[in-house]
Amino acid sequence: MLRYxxxxxxxxxxxxxxxxxxxxxxxxxxxxxxxDAERVLPPEIEENIARAYHLDESLPQQFIRYxxxxxxxxxxxxxxxxxxxxxxxxxxxxxxxxxxxxxxxxLAIVAGVAAGLTAALSKNSFIDRLVTGIAxxxxxxxxxxxxxxxVLVFAVYLQWLPASWTGGTSISRLILPVVALxxxxxxxxxxxxxxxxxxxxxxxxVRTARSQGLRTISIIRYHALKPAMLPLLSYMGPAIAGILTxxxxxxxxxxxxxxxxxxxxxxxxxxxxxxxxxxxxxxTLLILLNLVxxxxxxxxxxxxxxx
Amino acid sequence: xxxxxAIKPLIRKSRDxxxxxxxxxxxxxxxxxxxxxxxxxxxxxxxxxxxNPLMLPSASGWHLFGTDDLGRxxxxxxxLGVKITLFVAIIxxxxxxxxxxxxxxxxxxxxxxxxxxxxxxxxALYAMPFIFFVILLMVVFERNFLLIFxxxxxxxxxxxxxxxxxxxxxxxxxxxxxxxxxxxVSTPGIILRHITPNLLGVxxxxxxxxxxxxxxxxxxxxxxGLGVQEPQTSLGALVNGGVSNMEGAPWLLLIPSIVLAxxxxxxxxxxxxLRDVTDPKKKT
Amino acid sequence: MSLLEVKDLSxxxxxxAKPVVQNLSFxxxxxxxxxxxxxxxxxxxxxxxxxxxxxxxxxITSGSIRFDGQEFLGAxxxxxxxxxxxxxxxxxxxxxxxxxxxVRIGDQLRRILLEHKICKPPEARERTLVMLQRVGLPDAExxxxxxxxxxxxxxxxxxxxxxxxxxxxxxxxxxxxTTALDVTVQAQILGLLRELRSQSNSALFLITHDLGVVAxxxxxxxMMDNGRLLEEGxxxxxxxxxxxxxxxxxxxxxxxxxxxxxTSPLPDGEAPIVEVDNLSVSFRERYGSGKxxxxxxxxxxxxxxxRETLAIVGESGSGKTSLVKAILGLIPMxxxxxxxxxxxxxxxxxxxxxxxxxxxxxxxxxxVASLNPAMRVADIVAEPIIIHEPKKKKAxxxxxxxxxxxxxxxxxxxxxxxxxxxxxxxxxxxAIARALxxxxxxxxxxxxxxxxxxxxxxDILQLLQAEQADSGLSLIFITHDLSVVRQISHRVxxxxxxxxxxxxxxxxxxxxPLHPYTKALIQSVxxxxxxxxxxxxxxxxxxxxxxxxxxxxxxxxxxxxxVARCSEQVPALQSVVxxxxxxxxxxxxxLSY
Lengths: 307, 284, 593
Prior knowledge:
The structure holds 3 protein chains of 3 kinds. By secondary structure, chain A is mostly helical. Chain A has helices spanning 2-28, 43-52, 59-71, 86-121, 126-140, 143-157, 172-201, 204-211, 216-254, 259-269, 272-300, 302-305. Chain A has a domain at 93-257: MetI-like fold, CATH 1.10.3720. In chain A, α4 (86-121) runs parallel beside α11, α5 crosses α7 and α7 (172-201) packs antiparallel against α9 (216-254). Chain A is flat. Chain B is mainly alpha-helical. Chain B has helices at 2-15, 18-40, 74-110, 112-126, 130-140, 145-172, 175-182, 187-223, 235-244, 251-278. Chain C is α/β, with parallel strands linked by helices. In chain C, α5 packs across α7, α7 packs parallel to α8 and α14 (377-388) packs parallel to α16 (424-436). Chains in contact: A-B, A-C, B-C. At the A-C interface, α8 and α9 of A face α2 and α4 of C.
């Protein structure tokens, strides 16, 4: 098991390096510098700016410098928000995004598992069909459609909840964004839970447990729950990626000052260092969380643990 | 001959499946309207009419879906959006199909170390937040159509590669492939006559499931203003336009949203239906 | 009142009109053992499921199943749960899938005791340990904590039986409890069941396709076919004088290892057609940080004469499939050569010249898997002709295909079918037709009848023997089934963990085996004769793991005759009259009977 863990951890490092190098190269292959759009500057000032941002060095030198900064948690200066470093911008926006993301993830797991289990246990009933139908809709309808429609209904017409971040209390302003962010994941998790629970309940070993006179509740608790939840664990990686992607849209629509909003602003303003920093930050986060999920899987599945 | 034979049972079973028939009919209908509709309407998708912005849907003046803030006819623009969204998604899915099938088939057929290395690479790519790379790509380079295809294709080929590789691997170990080698079939013959025809069903199913994902990515980019550029439009861009006017003119948001949702739902249901039909465990 | 009384039971499924069980009535008395025998599709498992109340939701039933007076058909789950485990319990066919891979063996057993409140948690652990020991898991303390995949097949089935007996049931239902196991392990499990029943006096409802298994273990027999009861009665009477024609056919189809062989003698002194010299196969497996060699086949040599049938016998892990795959060039060999008609062949099939490739053909175990699902029968049989006789005109080729299909006993109406539309027997005939259509000199059959029903096995074996008589084909027949070996082979090669134990003529192997393993193997085969009461278990233990092969003779950990030398030195293959044997004590032991 320890071997497995170490192997996984060391396996993640090249991936991480590859991600950083790829993102870095992409930005530096950009046609035109970051300041081109602005009015023409005298050459000596341009030179000064270039020196200040180390644009005069060779690409490998810049990359090494950048990597060195990353190790210290320094993503370099922002091109647009002149008074801030990228690390500061990410650091300031992180708590808001974290709050949103963690709440959405929890909601997705709780609601998704509950709906999926309910459907699986009453397979082919009305409730099952309802859950499956809603889940399919949830998967099909993108966040950027759900979020504005929810604003339209709950904020504009019913006026139950605030339409934007600045308009409500610290709790009421969270509800719509968290639900919008969680919805597609609830749908995915419900489908996954339903399918895997149905699969497990029709397995030979559950049949054995039934032949041994175990009640349904005992069968689920002692035989079915763990194997049925393992696929869910491997879905956590994609789910986190989905939440990160969704947060970009949700933060934009609700005007939430999180990382996603900075990302979009940065993208539209060509703030290369900011966008680069956020991509690398997200990639690192995702790779780390995937690693955690992998290791958890190894711990929980006896057939992997044995190796 | 083999290919047709391989796909025939799939078609036969699909005809008996209500979900598949209904969903594919709706999709064909939408596609037909998107192609023919603009020819019948008196309006052009780019012609503005500042006299009549934000008009409610009405039959008079043939503004069936109303007009947007620039007075452009939403019906024609929605159909254009459908056309572009579908076009982008299908081409992008073909890109991912091509890459995925080739990559997966090579990894699966060659096997051994090559397979291990190729699949480790796929695993590593899985852990990447691709959508952010695509956004980065869109920011850094000029936004053009070609880039959208490449970007979306590059995201979606991973699943296809994994599935095709798994299928190839299991087909390769099936006894009929050994039997073919013993009667003297050459390697190209085995790949062409014995392996590929049996991959077809799975590829068709996952192609159907890849299209809605491609639609999602494209409309996501367009929604953020990073995809298709004005006066061209796609469903994502229309939704984005609807959001800015949603309090005064909610139909600008709702109509493209509903069209997009219906298309995605149909593709997803279609894919699910096809998967059920091809699932050997659910043999009728 | 009978313990179990089934009356007029019919079962069908909502999506099909044909019932899987029709008007079945029988009863089991307390302490009695009843065997239900039939081929696939007879409705045996459906009956067992109905008795346990485990039929799926879309099954439609009628009739009655009474256990100790309580109606089971349509009974509520909590009523059934009162009976399950404590009054009636079941052992399933495949212990690998029937045990939960995510739960420790001990916990799976203990849960039964706790669920039925048979005892308190601390005592439950004690009782579980005792039961594990009773069913032959010697190191119960350790085996309590392992997961099913960490046990061997035989050990898993022992645990499964332990689980069934924990509640001390009055009736044990066993559905093909030994079908997934090797023959020597099957003998152990059947012996265990007999022993446990003699201690507890519970009734047994044993379901199997193997007449040999019921003959030695059941007082009464139910013969089933196609969902209907053919005949019921005391085992001895049915075997002696079946009153039903179909029953008589089924009993006749059960080959008996104690019957003489049906092969015709071979002329002496012909040059061998296939010569295997010093062939070995190994796999590289990732192991810890590095890789290591796993030896599937150790260097071995043998010859096959024209029109000879050589049987290669071995249990799982013997390396028999690796051996034939290496001979055919489907996998690389580690050392050695294969010669055809005196000419050495390149190692891999793709580098062998086409005119020699066609001479060596193969028939596989799973007939449906060996046919391309995307091709029609006619195209499957035509493909070899297209490759080897490309100049043949289409009409001529079609004619060849039709002739071949008729030759293997298939009707023309099957020409346009796809493999999944064929029965197992038909598919195997197509596979044989594909192999024979290019007139090979050697046909290798890898468990070619193992997946088929008894009566169909007989037909396929007959077809192969007729072909041999007609065209002088040599057959290499890989099998685990000694009754097949007895019937069709001239010579027999016995493999154990990739090494030859013994090569000898059919007569000698079955009458005067020289290797203790050969003898145990033969004695383990259940004989379909209720008068031949099974002996004690002929062979203890299970095949050692290939990952960790024993030093010396690979068989010595299970051998009752083993001496110190056996664990130190690998015995060489020494020539004896009528064959060769690899045993240190071959000269001193007398194993004939």
